[in-house]
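Below is one protein, fold included:
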Amino acid sequence: MAIATVNPATGEILKRFNALASEEIEAKLTQAQETFQSYRLTSFTQRQKWLNNAALILERDAEKFATIMTTEMGKTKKSAISEAKKCALVCRYYAENGEAFLADEYTETDATKSYVSYQPLGIILAVMPWNFPFWQVFRFAAPALMAGNVAVLKHASNVPQCALAIEAILEAAGFPEGAFQTLLIGAAQVEDVINDDRVKAATLTGSEPAGMSLASLAGHQIKPTVLELGGSDPLIVFPSADLDEAVDIGTFSRTLNNGQSCIASKRFILHEAIAEQFLEKLQIKFASLKVGDPMDDDTDIGPLATENILNDIVRQVDKAVELGSTVLLGGKRLDRPGNFFPPTILTDIPVDAPTMKEEFFAPVVMVFTVKNIAEAIALANDIPFGLGSSAWTNEPTEQQRFIRDLEAGAVFINGLVKSDPRLPFGGIKRSGYGRELGVPGIRAFVNAKTVWIK
């Protein structure tokens, strides 16, 4: 894929970028390694100051950064402003807590003194996606930089200006030159970077094929990785739930970021006692959403990020219909310039249909009806993914059953599945491994060094 800014609302190519040559990549890795030797010795207080500076820049210029995000990948500008501000939040979180999270941990042994010392590894490669082009990067960069690592970023090829803006933010915040660098490279060039001895670990958020490729390359080099991959999260609604709230949150989750979120609720699993009522409310809510120019404040859903993504969702919906699904709302690409697909509701989906086990990366919800909690959990778990899950019930025994038995990295009861700097984030099964955010996020790329003193 060419490295370029293509406006998804119009299809216009706004700017092209040349991929770095081998010698340019070498120069950046050399600089990163040289910077690490001094950066790892900086104090937590100094890194804290730089992260807080980054937070101030993100908040001050949130509208400018939002315009870049919206132009490159089509999210609504109002949601992009929120994204920039959330990045400021994660910077402040690790600025305030990073030192405590990495403090020496003492244990009594036969030594006079014994403890674990958390020390940075070196250069970390981040391979990041286009859908949250600032947030995905900052939720890695803030803890990695606070821990004393340095980073190189291979961002998605359709958001190069976002990648360059992030590097500029961190430089303006005061981080030393070489502490965080953007590599404008193609996917085929990642292998040479991960194979470089100076690169000590890698993290990737993206598709299953991309995750498998990076994990395989890193495995050959015995280098640690963290993977956050796809998801097809269930939203399960039972009779005791607040149906209006569940509809509101479910709609927001499924259409957030124009439907392009790994942790969106994509499969709505409804108890038969409330299924008809819920579906009526959901259809009204979906029908009220405005599809349009993502720069407009009153737009709810903008275009999909690329033409390929649009073609994929058209194929998936058509296949679902072919297999027996009913289109309750939407279902066809919009006849207008840009990569627009309307809010869509699919029902009557055969549970054994291959389509049911795929991730739909668009504002398309699949609706299923079940008779009891055992059936709901079985259906929720009958997919390759295990990222997030949302269960709506006010019955304590049902809540505990969902918490225990849903196969996912996160279970949210009566709430929106979301990433929060204070809590670990990640999945199981084919949704990946490892955790970002929280305490695990900053300890993902450090050496937990055992120290024993006689």
